[in-house]
Amino acid sequence: MPVRSERRADGIRVVTVDAPPVNALTVQGWFDLAAALDEASADAQTRVVVLRAEGRGFNAGVDIKEMQSTDGFAALVGANRGCFAAFKAVYECAVPVIGAVHGFCLGGGVGLVGNCDVVVASEDASFGVPEVKQGALGAATHMARLVPQHLMRTLYFTARTITAAELVQHGSVYAVVPREQLDETALELAADIADKDPRVIRAAKAALNGIDPVDVNKSYRFEQGFTFELNLLGVSDELRDGFVGRDR
């Protein structure tokens, strides 16, 4: 299973993504991740979630190889729906979600992290939305929660990445630590949250979402509409074929 979920005795639930080689999730993988977070949200014993990953990096987005090896648009539609479900599950989780990021955090990874309540990262972590290189759009909604508007646009148009150390300056990453201290740091922060009255914390999460100035679900779906247009025009397929070809 590419997604594991374990609730500890102290109420901290650790959700781990482990989909070698780069944690690029298949359609089913995105829905599995959404289900794990929905389960955490519905569990009254869960006080806080730590979302982490094994392997070389946190998340490399959707599995483009799966998309290009599937006839028609079923994989494209599935990936879009799966990403939407997973991002939504992070944002709407009834308890705070802490993203523990190491290595690369790309595309769908930014979608997850941008919707987290708190982000901690290792010194080697970098964040980016390379969608324009694969003929897609998406996660600008979530990158805009990590950096100011003009920087988000620059990163989006150029497909460049930004380091965790740079994000600390914008206040979107809470702490940057050596890789070997990442899980410990995330769990220490989670324990601090788990120590509070869960009734208050759940109310606080609902209140903060309620005063959020951006409807992240609606704005991300708006972005996805342009991705479908680019696919119907054949642009996305051409660029994804090039990406898969380079990886052979």
Automatic annotation (TrEMBL):
Q: Which GO terms describe its biological process?
A: fatty acid beta-oxidation
Q: Does the keyword Nucleotide-binding apply?
A: no
| Keywords, in A-Z order | Lipid metabolism, Lyase
Family matches, as InterPro entries = ClpP/crotonase-like_dom_sf (IPR029045), Enoyl-CoA_hydra/iso (IPR001753)
Classification via Gene3D superfamilies? 2-enoyl-CoA Hydratase, Chain A, domain 1
Per UniProt, what is one Pfam family of this protein? ECH_1
GO molecular function annotations of the record: lyase activity
The UniProt entry, under SUPFAM superfamilies, shows: ClpP/crotonase
Q: Which domain of life is it from?
A: Bacteria
Name the family. Belongs to the enoyl-CoA hydratase/isomerase family.
Q: Which PANTHER family match?
A: (7AS)-7A-METHYL-1,5-DIOXO-2,3,5,6,7,7A-HEXAHYDRO-1H-INDENE-CARBOXYL-COA HYDROLASE, ENOYL-COA HYDRATASE-RELATED
- Name it: Enoyl-CoA hydratase family protein
Protein source organism: Nocardioides anomalus
Its taxonomic path starts at: Bacteria, Bacillati, Actinomycetota, Actinomycetes, Propionibacteriales
